[in-house]
TrEMBL record:
Keyword vocabulary terms for this entry: Periplasm, Signal
Key word DNA repair present: no
Signal peptide (UniProt feature, chain positions): 1-22
GO molecular function, one term: unfolded protein binding
The keyword Secreted appears for this protein: no
Entry-linked InterPro entries: Cpx_auxiliary_protein, LTXXQ
CC per GO annotation: outer membrane-bounded periplasmic space
Subcellular location: Periplasm
Assigned protein family: Belongs to the CpxP/Spy family.
Protein name: LTXXQ motif family protein
Length: 276
């Protein structure tokens, strides 16, 4: 059970996200979910009837060529993450990236084609939205950093107010002891610099993908060259994330791991109810 639990969460952690037309999405791509992102970013663009029909045709062709996989057809990872070495994790992640690259290019082609359906004024609107979204993202990040700093002081009793335990979203539903909270806090602090650097690498990659998609230089060769340029950074970032999750799971007791596995299994079954 411990092996399955670490594997399930680690695979979720290393998954590469799809990228939306106007803004890269966060890691965690669900099949066809990026199409919903395209819809969101095209709101308020004032598409003509002809443009809507052209985009509808493009999206339909994409879905026909890239059918949604059935849940039972998705293979489970054959790697024991509980005892896997860094080299084994790296090889696994590299294989996952390469296997998904064809689908990522197909979606990039869709984004490129849709972008070219827009006129210059509509494209300028998307660019302006990007600039505003980036400013909003930075403001949100700065506010979050300040909130985290204040929260850390409250935990240490340096500011007024009741002490609170930090919420561990990775272990939501599990009651952690003070010792475990301290251990996880220490681990998270040790990961901070590496995580920040890796997030920056991933953002640079997604920004480069977005710029290429909107460029007249977009092609399969250009896309492959961009992927090759960032591949080592992507693999190293995902390996580091997997190692972090391994370390954090070691903090849990066997009973806590069993409870977390039961909670995740329950969530999986509930999701199945609502699958189309």
């Amino acid at each position: 059970m411990k092996k399955l639990l670490i594997a399930s969460v680690t695979v979720a952690a290393i998954g590469l996200g799809g990228l939306a037309l106007a803004q890269p999405a966060e890691p965690g791509m669900r099949h066809h979910e990026p199409v919903k992102e395209i819809v969101k970013h095209l709101r308020g663009i004032s598409l003509s009837d002809a443009q809507r029909e052209e985009i509808k045709t493009l999206v339909s062709a994409f879905k026909d060529a890239n059918p949604r996989p059935k849940f039972g057809d998705i293979e489970k990872p054959n790697l024991d993450f509980a005892s896997a070495t860094e080299a084994q994790i790296s090889a696994f992640i590299q294989t996952q990236l390469e296997e998904r690259e064809a689908t990522h290019f197909a979606f990039a082609q869709l984004r490129h084609d849709i972008y070219n359906v827009l006129n210059e004024e509509q494209q300028a609107t998307l660019l302006a939205r990007d600039a505003k979204r980036e400013l909003d993202r930075q403001k949100h990040h700065d506010a979050f950093v300040k909130q985290e700093a204040r929260f850390a002081k409250r935990i240490d009793g340096e500011v007024k107010g009741p002490k609170r335990k930090p919420r561990e979203f990775l272990f939501e539903g599990i009651e952690l002891t003070d010792e475990q909270v301290a251990s996880l806090t220490e681990l998270r602090e040790s990961f901070k610099d590496a995580s920040k650097a890796n997030r920056e690498k991933l953002r640079n990659f997604k920004d480069a993908q977005r710029d290429l998609v909107r460029s007249q230089s977009f092609s399969q060769d250009a896309w492959d060259a961009l992927f090759a340029q960032y591949k080592d950074d992507l693999v190293s970032a995902k390996v580091e994330k997997a190692k972090q999750h391994q370390a954090m799971f070691q903090v849990l007791s066997s009973e806590q791991q069993a409870k977390l596995e039961a909670l995740r299994e329950e969530e999986r079954k509930l999701r199945e109810i609502f699958k189309p």
